[in-house]
Write a structure and sequence with these properties.
The chain is mainly α. It is built from 6 helices and no strands.
Length: 183
Amino acid sequence: MRNSDFAGADAALLGGCNYQQLTAGLLKRMTHLADNGRRLAGTGANRALDEMTMRRVLQICCVIGLVVLAFVGLGPATWQPRSGLGWEIDHFVGYCVITLICCLAWPRPLVVGGALMVFAVLLEGLQGFMPDRSSYYLAAVYSAAGVLTGALGAELFFRAWSRFRSKRAVSAQPSPLPRMREH
C-alpha cells in the first residue's frame, strides 16, 4: 500500500479530513493556547493561581507532618528523635515551628493555634495508653506553650504585614491635597 492509500483510509476514519488539514488545525490550536498563556503570564491570574497552588501544597504537607508526628508520638519510644537539649525544649520548639508552618498554610493563627493545642494535649494523653510510653502533663503544657507562642507570633506578623502593605498602598497613591509650588 502506498501513503495515499493510508491517507484515504485514515480520512474515512477521521470523517473526511486528511493529515494536512488535521495537522494544520492542531498547530493552529496549539499556537492559540500558547499565545493565551503568554498573555496571561504578565497578569496577576497566574500569580494568584501559583499562590493558591503553593498554599494547597503547604496544607497537604502540614497534614502529612501532623500524621507523621502522631505516628511517631504513639509509636515505640525508640522512634522519637531527640535533640539532646531536653524534652522540654524539644516539645516547645517543635510545636512552635509546626504551628508557624501551619499558620502559613492556613492564615488564621488563633484558630490553627487552638486546634494544634487540642492536638498536642490529646497526643500526650494518648501516650498513656501505649505500653512503653507514659503521659506527662508538663509535656502537654510545654507543647501547648510552643503552640501558643507560634500562633501569637504568626498573628503579630500577619497584622504587621497587613499594616505595612496598607501604608505602602496609601503612600503610592497621589495626595488629594494640591502641592505647593516652590519659588
